[in-house]
From TrEMBL:
The keyword Transferase applies. The gene is trmB. Residues 1-24 are annotated as: Disordered. Residues 125-130 are annotated as: Interaction with RNA. Substrate binds at K123, D155, T195, E196, Y197, E198. Catalyzes the formation of N(7)-methylguanine at position 46 (m7G46) in tRNA. This is tRNA (guanine-N(7)-)-methyltransferase. Belongs to the class I-like SAM-binding methyltransferase superfamily. TrmB family. Keywords: Methyltransferase, S-adenosyl-L-methionine, Transferase, tRNA processing. It holds the Pfam family Methyltransf_4. It comes from the Bacteria. It catalyses: guanosine(46) in tRNA + S-adenosyl-L-methionine = N(7)-methylguanosine(46) in tRNA + S-adenosyl-L-homocysteine. Its EC number is 2.1.1.33. Residues 13-24 have a biased composition (Basic and acidic residues).
Length: 220
C-alpha cells in the first residue's frame, strides 16, 4: 500500500546520508561494514513498510546488523525516524528497488532475507514483479551466504501457494511451512515479530502464512 507523501520524511533522508541511502548508483559498490558501528552479520528486510518488524528485530539483536530496504521514500523516512529516535546503530535504510539486489550487496553478503507481506501482484501479467518470482530468487541465491535463509510471511493464500511452487521449482529446501502461523506451537508464536500489516490482518481472524527456505546448492 502506497503511503501519502510526507515532505518531512523526504527531507529527513536527505539530512542523514550516514544512515539512509536514497537510490544509490547500482554501479558503485557500497561498503556496508563501514556504515555500521560494528562489523557484524547482516540481515535484510525487503519491503519494510513503516519498519515495525525491522526496528524490533534490531532492538532485540544488537549482535547483528540490519538493512531495511524500502522503495517508497516516505516509508523509508518513517523507518529512519524510528532508527534515530531509538538510537539503533545496527540499522541502515536503503531506499531502492530489490531488482538490483546483487549490485547493492554483492555475493554471499547476508545471512537472512525477510519478505513480509509483499505486494501479491495478483494479475498474471504482473507475475515478474512478485518478490518470489524466479528472477528475484536468483538474486537472493547470490547474496545469501551458504547457510543463509529466506523468511516469508503473507496473508495472501494465492501468493503463498505461488511462492511455494516457485521456490520448489527453483530447487529450494523448506525448513518450515505454516498455513496458520499464529496458531502454531507456543514457542513459535512467542518468537514471531509482527509487522503492522500482520497485526491488522491477524486481529481480523485472517490466517498468516509463513515459510522458511534455503538453497540446496551450498557450494556456490
Amino acid at each position: 500500500m502506497r503511503l501519502k507523501n510526507k515532505p518531512w520524511a523526504n527531507q529527513l533522508i536527505d539530512d542523514h546520508p550516514e544512515a539512509a541511502l536514497d537510490r544509490p548508483d547500482p554501479e558503485v559498490k557500497i561498503d556496508w561494514d563501514s556504515r555500521f558501528a560494528k562489523k557484524q552479520p547482516i540481515e535484510i528486510e525487503i519491503g519494510s513498510g513503516k519498519g515495525q518488524f525491522i526496528t524490533t528485530l534490531a532492538q532485540q539483536h544488537p549482535e547483528k546488523n540490519f538493512i531495511a530496504m524500502e522503495i517508497q521514500k516516505t516509508a523509508a523516512g518513517i523507518i529512519l525516524k524510528k532508527k534515530l529516535d531509538e538510537g539503533l546503530d545496527n540499522l541502515q535504510i536503503l531506499c531502492a528497488d530489490a531488482a538490483n539486489l546483487v549490485a547493492y550487496f554483492g555475493q554471499n553478503s547476508t545471512n537472512r532475507i525477510y519478505l513480509n507481506f509483499s505486494d501479491p501482484w495478483p494479475k498474471t501479467r504482473h507475475e515478474k514483479r512478485r518478490l518470489t518470482y524466479r528472477s528475484f530468487l536468483e538474486e537472493y541465491r547470490q547474496v545469501l551466504t551458504a547457510d543463509g535463509m529466506i523468511e516469508f510471511k503473507t496473508d495472501n493464500a494465492g501468493l503463498f501457494a505461488y511462492s511455494l511452487k516457485s521456490m520448489n521449482n527453483f530447487g529450494m529446501h523448506f525448513d518450515f511451512v505454516s498455513v496458520d502461523l499464529h496458531h502454531e506451537k507456543e514457542e513459535i508464536v512467542a518468537a514471531n515479530i509482527e509487522t503492522e500489516y500482520e497485526h491488522k490482518f491477524a486481529s481480523k481472524g485472517n490466517p498468516i502464512y509463513c515459510l522458511h527456505a534455503d538453497f540446496l546448492d551450498k557450494d556456490r
